[in-house]
Design brief:
There is one protein chain. The chain is an alpha+beta fold and about 60 residues long. It contains one helix and five strands. It has one domain. It has a three-stranded antiparallel β-sheet with strand order 3-4-5, covered by helices on one side. Strands 1-2 form a two-stranded antiparallel ribbon. The longest helix has 12 residues. The two termini are about 15 Å apart. This is Flagellar protein FlbD.
Length: about 60
């Protein structure tokens, strides 16, 4: 499952939550890091990002 966020350049960005290695708060919003030094900064606050990622990782009821 992919999760949609808005990048700091206002483009929609799809993220695969299983590939996320680290999430941190930055001045522009929230930085989502992946393996091999890849990252993206999104405008959503960290609490919203974590909630969306966790919801996508939960088994469907």
């Amino acid at each position: 499952m992919l999760v949609m966020f808005v990048g700091v350049d206002r483009t929609e960005t799809a993220v695969n939550p299983t590939q996320v290695t680290f999430v941190s708060s930055v001045t522009d919003g929230t930085r989502i890091r992946f393996g091999e030094g890849r990252s993206i900064t999104v405008t959503e606050p960290i609490a919203e990002v974590l909630d969306s990622l966790n919801r996508a990782l939960r088994p469907h009821e």
